[in-house]
Amino acid sequence: MAKRFGNVLGAFADGAILFPLIAALANRSGFSSAMLFASAGIIYIFSGLWFRVPMSVQPLKAIAIAAVVSGASYLEVRWAGAVLGLFCVALLLFRIDRFADRVPSYLIHGIQAGLGLMLLRRAFEGGLETFIHPDLFQSFFILGACGIAWLVSHFFGLSLLGLLAAGGTIVGISLSPSETIGFSSAVPVVRWDFILALALPQVVLTSANSVLATHDVALRYFGEKAHRVSISGLLASIGFGNIAVSTFGGLPFCHGSGGVTAHVRGGSYHWSSNLIIGAFCLMLAGAQVVWGRTLLNYPPLLLGILLGVVGYHHVKLAAPSWRVPALRPTLIIMGTVALLSQNLLWSLGFGIITASASYLLFSKRVPL
To answer: Distance from first CA to last CA of the chain, Å, rounded?
Structure first.
């Protein structure tokens, strides 16, 4: 019984990333939250049935976070997801391990740190907005629940933030106003520079983390049971999946090594955990359609806290490169540019320039 409960708890372990980013995309970029939940549920179920191990399904964080902070439209996000999907399909013709080995790890860490700082800034701004007109009862309840979740995680090793994020989603749907589902005749402007700014940093992260690292961590956790989690299988899933969801406004997604680890450490031991979280997402989508609640009024304080937690852990991903003093200038510049410009493409560009200059000046200390 305890093991089965662990599989249920583990199914929601990555929810602290999934649910807040869905809420942020729906509220900031104009996506239908019902469509986001429905597509996430279908992808989760398909991933479990196909890979036969607990497999994470995460929003494309470089695209989703950059879209939320920059105000990109849902069409621009969909195009960026399609570009990534086409890139992954094209990589099926080549050896991705050779491609990824040519990308310096500190550039990947710089993008991850930049993402984290952008999220922390958004969480801070959201927190300020929350406390302008605070709901004291709700605020104390959320802070208390988050405190308990942290204590349980710290002392017992059980991740409850995912369940807390799922609960916030249910509350958000129940508090959303009922309205008639309709379609706007206005077509958002598509800015191709925005699409490139969303897609290119994601290409770097997906190649390294969503494919190579996920393949490696799945083999370490499940051995021969993870034989379907091949590099080509992950590329096909992310590639064809994002091309498909971009056509109807679904969730742009990837599989991540950190997400797999979250599920496993949360208690998942069998791919049926994918069916659990997938069915839950489909029920959320169904509830929105039945009630006619097309909006998602996610508790803003909880959203800010969860985005802050995700941002903090993303900044920590840069620790291996930060330990090398010669690499710190590149990380600092990439993080600062991302924080100020809210544009990961600028951050990546400055990172490449800084890394190249460091290589020319200190070639023995900073390998490309």
So the answer is: 51
Residue-by-residue DSSP string for 277-294: HHHHHHHHHHHHHHHT--
Query: For the segment 91-138, what is each residue's pLDDT rounded down to a tens digit?
Result: 888 776 666 566 677 888 888 888 888 888 878 776 666 665 666 666
**Rounded distance between C-alpha atoms, residue 151 and residue 63, angstroms:** 32
The predicted-structure confidence for 161-202, as pLDDT tens digits, reads as follows 888 889 889 888 887 776 544 444 445 667 887 888 888 888
Contacts of residue 47, Cβ cutoff 8 Å, sequence gap at least 6:
55, 57, 237, 255, 274
Q: Are 266 and 162 in contact (CB under 8 A)?
A: yes
The alpha-helical segments, DSSP class H, found in the chain are: 2-11, 15-29, 33-51, 61-70, 74-91, 96-101, 105-130, 136-156, 161-175, 192-205, 214-222, 231-248, 257-266, 272-291, 300-316, 319-322, 328-341, 344-361
